[in-house]
C-alpha cells in the first residue's frame, strides 16, 4: 500500500490511537515512521504481528504527517477496515 492513498482513507493517526484500534480489531494495515522511537513503535509491531497485520516502515514521520494532511509528524498511521 502506498502513502498517497492515506488522504482519502479512514485511518487513525498517532501511536496511542493506532495501538488502541489494533486491539479493537479495526485496523488492517499500519504505517510506522522508520525514524520513530523504537520504544514507542515496538508495542505496535508486536500487536500487529500477533494479529497478522502488515506493517510498512519505509517512510519518515514527516512523510506520514504530510500524507495525512496534518501539520505535525506522525509516528504511526493505522488503516481502518
TrEMBL record:
It holds the Pfam family Ribosomal_L7Ae. InterPro entries: Ribosomal_eL30-like_sf, Ribosomal_eL8/eL30/eS12/Gad45. Gene3D superfamilies: 3.30.1330.30. Coiled coil: none annotated. This is Ribosomal L7Ae/L30e/S12e/Gadd45 family protein. It comes from the Bacteria. Residues 12-79 form the Ribosomal protein eL8/eL30/eS12/Gadd45 domain. It comes from Veillonella rogosae. The lineage of its organism: Bacteria, Bacillati, Bacillota, Negativicutes, Veillonellales.
